[in-house]
Recover the amino acids of this structure.
């Protein structure tokens, strides 16, 4: 990024037909509809239990950039734990994009990580897949028809990502910004667990150290409990099941 450090590489696609989300779920986007980016890192400066912060700063940088490019008020774009970017408004909470991080060599000096992000950009409502039309949106729709240039969005995103990654290298993470962007806090959330069971809980925040969702323990009023992303298959806001 600076000083000749060969850390970050960027790959951009115009169309995606076989993208992957969490737990093997699919992610697709027609040509010209979305900004699709994969970023490679060599984050030896992060301990293993802080690698999740790479995905977090990617999401925060994209939210900042998208609001500017789409002419949206600051704070309209939110993060739905653990890995979605959403619009929270009169129509409820609708998904704009998703972030997925993968790593190898964790705990070694040769650790490598890839963070992929897909953001629905200039995608008109009439071209939304029928099965997702009720839960998704795009920057074009969120800005009431404003044309979104993916190249402009990419440039704005990378400009905002660099200082956030440099801050991570220096041991700093924007905990306050990450907390403020959360759409899940103070809402009922239905957690679907890997064994097929589910529970409805109230989210009270997120943990800036572990990345966990903080919930009210239903068995111990007044006590908070951590839920790690790897512990759940789905996390749905009670009023937006399926998002």
């Amino acid at each position: 990024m600076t000083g000749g450090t060969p850390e970050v590489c960027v790959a951009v696609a115009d169309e995606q037909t076989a993208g992957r989300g969490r737990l093997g779920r699919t992610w697709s986007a027609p040509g010209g509809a979305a900004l699709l980016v994969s970023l490679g890192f060599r984050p030896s400066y992060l301990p293993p239990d802080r690698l999740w912060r790479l995905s977090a700063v990617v999401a925060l940088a994209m939210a900042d950039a998208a609001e500017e490019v789409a002419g949206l008020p600051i704070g309209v774009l939110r993060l739905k734990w653990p890995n979605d970017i959403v619009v929270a408004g009169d129509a409820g909470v609708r998904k704009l994009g998703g972030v997925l991080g993968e790593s190898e060599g964790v705990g070694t000096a040769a650790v490598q990580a890839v963070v992929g992000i897909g953001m629905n950009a200039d995608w008109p409502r009439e071209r939304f897949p029928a099965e997702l039309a009720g839960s998704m949106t795009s920057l074009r729709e969120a800005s009431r028809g404003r044309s979104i240039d993916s190249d402009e969005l990419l440039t704005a995103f990378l400009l905002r990502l660099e200082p956030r990654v440099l801050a991570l290298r220096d041991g700093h993470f924007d905990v306050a910004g990450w907390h403020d962007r959360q759409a899940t806090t103070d809402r009922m959330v239905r957690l679907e667990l890997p064994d097929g069971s589910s529970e409805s809980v109230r989210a009270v925040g997120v943990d800036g150290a572990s990345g966990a969702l903080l919930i009210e323990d239903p068995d111990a009023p007044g006590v908070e409990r951590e839920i790690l992303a790897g512990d759940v298959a789905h996390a749905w806001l009670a009023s937006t099941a399926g998002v």
Summary: The longest helix spans residues 150-169.
